């Protein structure tokens, strides 16, 4: 399912923003776009997001909205300070200048006070994880809203499939009656109008009825429909399970079609195959 979620918060003296986008994919496929200093935490990102998203192409972008302050700290170069002090005192004595060399004058001399950047901020997973989870929750909320719409659409397809199956169940018994009359008439024609042996005819009708019977297929079909509805009503990811059930539904529909021997039932089977195809297409958008 498609989704988007973002979150930002104060982290290590800066402000961090995490954005998560998801699109359809058969498996969990993660794409991380991290600042260079986050490289050591890639494993933590991957493991945490795998818990949030069972499948889908997940793109995560992390950036500093406000980077952590990197203070410039002074460092005293004592060797340079001693050298400068000695030179200033020598200059004072040479020129016979009054007073003493003070600290203010000393620290203003080049290389006495050196400024260095603080070492890079040491990133830890602990302060970052809550921002990632908040963005993942926002993305999941959007995916859930889309999932509810998809579940309604899939439920509608199941309603149509179930209605067609009921129609077939109503039409199926008439095939045996029609086949019996057809067979009786065919025997009369072959025997020049002589009445057929009813016992023999009954045996043939029973054999044909067994070949045309689709009761088991209709029962299994209904069981698969019920399982689909249960999966859609649950809270767990149902895409893979529904994909398997769609295959089983298709298998039963194909068997019913092969046993149809009836134009009206064949027409219903064609309609069911069309609805099943639409059902499968929508499953591509469901986790």
Describe this structure in words.
With 287 residues, the chain is α+β, with helices and mostly antiparallel strands. Among the domains are: 3-69 and 126-141, GHMP Kinase, N-terminal domain (Ribosomal Protein S5, domain 2, 2-Layer Sandwich), CATH 3.30.230; 72-117, no CATH class. Helix content is 61%, strand content 16%. It has helices spanning 42-52, 78-95, 103-107, 125-190, 198-212, 215-233, 239-259, 263-283; strands at 3-11, 14-23, 28-33, 56-66, 72-76, 113-117. The strands form two sheets. The chain has a four-stranded mixed sheet. The protein has a two-stranded antiparallel ribbon with strand order 5-6. β1 (3-11) and β2 form a beta hairpin. α1 (42-52) crosses α4 (125-190).
């Amino acid at each position: 399912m498609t989704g988007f979620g973002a979150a930002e918060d104060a982290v290590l003296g800066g402000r961090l923003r995490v954005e998560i986008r998801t699109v359809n994919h058969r498996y969990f496929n993660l794409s991380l776009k991290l600042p260079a200093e986050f490289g050591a935490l890639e494993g933590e990102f991957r493991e945490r997001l795998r818990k949030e998203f069972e499948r889908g192409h997940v793109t995560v972008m992390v950036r500093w909205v406000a980077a952590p302050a990197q203070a410039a700290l002074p460092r005293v170069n004592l060797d340079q300070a001693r050298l400068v002090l000695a030179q200033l005192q020598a200059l004072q004595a040479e020129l016979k200048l009054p007073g003493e060399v003070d600290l203010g004058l000393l620290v203003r001399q080049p290389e006495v006070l050196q400024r260095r950047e603080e070492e890079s901020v040491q990133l830890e997973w602990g302060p970052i994880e809550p921002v990632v989870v908040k963005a993942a929750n926002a993305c999941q909320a959007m995916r859930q809203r889309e999932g509810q719409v998809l579940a309604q659409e899939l439920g509608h397809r199941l309603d149509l499939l179930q209605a067609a199956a009921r129609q077939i169940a109503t039409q199926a018994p008439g095939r045996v009656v029609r086949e019996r009359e057809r067979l009786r008439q065919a025997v009369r024609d072959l025997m020049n109008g002589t009445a057929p042996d009813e016992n023999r005819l009954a045996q043939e009708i029973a054999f044909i009825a067994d070949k045309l019977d689709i009761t088991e297929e209709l029962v299994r079909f209904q069981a698969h429909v019920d399982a689909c509805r249960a999966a859609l009503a649950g809270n767990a990811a149902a895409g893979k399970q529904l994909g398997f059930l769609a295959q089983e539904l298709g298998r039963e529909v194909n068997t019913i079609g092969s046993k149809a021997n009836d134009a009206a039932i064949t027409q219903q089977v064609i309609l069911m195959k069309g609805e099943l195809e639409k059902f499968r297409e929508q499953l591509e958008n469901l986790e």
